[in-house]
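From the shared-data thread, chain only:
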Amino acid sequence: MNKIIRIFLTTFLLASCGTKPDVRTEKLNAYLDAQFRTKADTTWRGIVVLTMNGCFSCNRYFLESMTRQPDISGYAVLVSASPGTIPAGAYEGKQADTVWKDYQDRFYDTQLMKSSGIIYLRQGVVDTIVDLRSEGLEQQVEYMQKRFATAQADF
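Structure, as tokens:
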């Protein structure tokens, strides 16, 4: 009897592991669907999130680095802030796959990120979230710039 119970429990656990949904991806897709009637595309490398929430100096530093970034093809951009608070140079003319503007800043309600950063995707599923913090800011931005450079080399 014990053997049968163990086999049943093992089978149940293995089956549940394979079907467990990714909560971050579900939150992201629910937000994108509610706001823009879309979901994360399987071809995107990530979503650049530009906001004024969280660390003000971190957001400014990131916006300046994004302004200098010439090409963000393969990425979507989400501007989640009041109109006029994010400089257009941080996202316009960058060859982004798509640009969304959430002037009511409803993205903050997802609690996926507290400030600007990038949600990296792998085939439409959230892989890594880089949410800028004051500690290690330069290293975080450098990591993002390297990922942009790697993405361009892959094209």
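DSSP finds four helices and five strands in the chain.
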